[in-house]
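Final report, closing paragraph on structural work. Over the funding period we assembled a curated collection of sequence-structure pairs, and we close with a single example.
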Amino acid sequence: MATKRTGYSSSRKPVNRGIVRYIDYDEFEPGSRNIAAEIHRLRMNMLVHSCLYYQLDQNVLTDMQFDRMAYRLADLQREYPVVSKRVPNYEFFKEWDGSTGFNLPLDDTQLIEKSLYIRRICNK
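Its predicted structure, as stored:
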């Protein structure tokens, strides 16, 4: 039986990449603000839930829930490429196809802190 990890354990030391960023919706045209907001929300969800799964050995979402969000993000980015490029963390998601979050930069210190917070809430 696998032992559940209780803290962050990785062979790589966490770094501050500045992944947890906020979005200035005033920079977007009124017609694209909702799309930008959804892309941003989905990217943050993919980062946090991938960190929970791959770094902290914690499932909060079912595979079906994760897949639904991941493929929705891929569809939005394909449908609105100009908006997608202007939303934070584009560089990590520019070739996102929704199949996995394994290759995302999951060693960001703020991302790990957010993920640990969510894990604590879910384990109560």
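DSSP finds five helices and no strands in the chain. Confidence is low (pLDDT under 50) at residues 1-6. We thank the funder for supporting this effort.
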